[in-house]
Amino acid sequence: TGVRMVHPEPKKPMPRYEPAPGSWSTGGALVANPMSIYPKYKARRDSFMADDLGPDAVEIATDKGIKGIGFGGPGCGYVIERHLTKLLIGEDPFDVEMLWDMMWRSTLYYGRKGLVIHALSAVDMALWDIIGNALGMPIWKLLGGGTKPKIPAYCTGNDIEQHIAFGFRRLKLAVPYGPADGREGLKKNLELVKKTRELLGADGDIMLDCWMALTEEYAIEFATMVAPYRIYWMEECLQPDDYDGFGRLHERIKSTLLATGEHEYTRYGFRLLLEHHAADIWQPDITWCGGLSELRHIGALAAAYNIPVIPHAGWQHGAAHFILATPNSPWCEMFMPPPGGPPEVYRQFEEDNSITRGPEGIYMRPPDRPGFSWELLVD
Questions:
Q1: Where among 136, 171, 191 does a domain terminate?
Q2: Which of 178, 241, 254, 319 can bridge 32 by disulfide, Cβ–Cβ 3.0-4.6 Å?
Q3: Which helix (H) or strand (E) holds 142?
Q4: Is 280 in contact with 269 (CB distance < 8 Å)?
Q5: Are 346 and 225 found together in one domain?
């Protein structure tokens, strides 16, 4: 077995273009976040987020020449190269559950969450990719086959007009203002929700991504204010370790569902969400939570309590294989290319994701190619 960090690129990259001025997707939009309380970091998330921490993709090759690629979160390369690789050499990639357990146990003394689990996630996905490539089967078939013919999708971002025109009937807004912006910010958030409901109409769904930025009292007041506009869920209202706070919100907010889990790790983190009655919907990220093996465990735990699992979008086709094969995973998250591009950009987006349209708006489906169906060029 050979293990190396790589910088994969799409075999068919999107054409480059300058997004339309004012597009939410350009990165300059205001988004409420945990650092919003510090004025110098409030305007842009990239002002405080980590610089390049190296590649987050790993390629694993077997002695028979079969390769698999997996993606993890930022900073995972160091752990893979200096630790996890030695656990993989000479092992059978089909023993993926044993290998996950070995990686988990061997990193307990310095891991359990964060970039160590990012690293474990990447390796786990690469192992599953090898299995699919070796058998000539897509991951969703390895997981037991499809549970739905196609996956209803929602779109995240505040380019509302573009997303509605494309055909989405479910929209998730990035809440721009948080407690640091006072009542004026609260009113502006309300105006964004009101505008979205007017454009979307009565039947579409609106979700609100609060990205760990709110306080309990702010979240409760905000939920009360937007209740007339029928919000489907409010997401990640509090910092991810505030399990007690999430539990209290769940007791007090009745006008909408509560979702979280994007920044939670492994079945043990989600067990804490369960024990604190913290959320109606779980949102693990396949590239952060522990990979496909652990996402399956999280999904099974959720299923025992009738909790829907709607993964965070990280490397969408990876999560889409799980969603297609999992009865209690009803939707997927998508991000559109920014407005302002040539028509071929949006045609390629449709082709890459097998987009169709129907009563629920936009649907997608992962490819039937082997493994995770990546089409990548590796350096």
A1: 136
A2: 178
A3: helix 139-142
A4: no
A5: yes
Q: State how far the Cα of 11 lies from the Cα of 206, in Å rounded to an integer.
A: 34
Sign, Cα dihedral of 34, 244, 231, 353: positive
Known active-site residue 312: yes
pLDDT value, residue 21: 86
Q: Give yes or no: residues 289 and 322 share one domain.
A: yes
Do the beta carbons of residue 104 and residue 96 sit within 8 Å?
no
Sequence-distant (6+) residues with CB within 8 A of 217 are none
Phi-psi region at 104: left, alpha or beta (left = phi > 0; alpha = psi -120 to 50): alpha
Mean pLDDT per block of 10 residues along the chain (379 residues) reads 92 93 79 95 88 91 97 94 98 98 99 98 98 98 98 97 98 98 98 99 98 98 99 99 99 99 99 99 98 99 99 86 98 96 97 96 97 92
Q: What is the pLDDT of residue 53?
A: 87
Query: Residue 289's closest CA among 320, 268, 305?
Result: 268
CB 194 within 8 A of CB 188: no
Domains contained in the chain, number: 2
- Identified catalytic residue from 163, 297, 312, 321: 312
Range of the domain at 90: 2-136
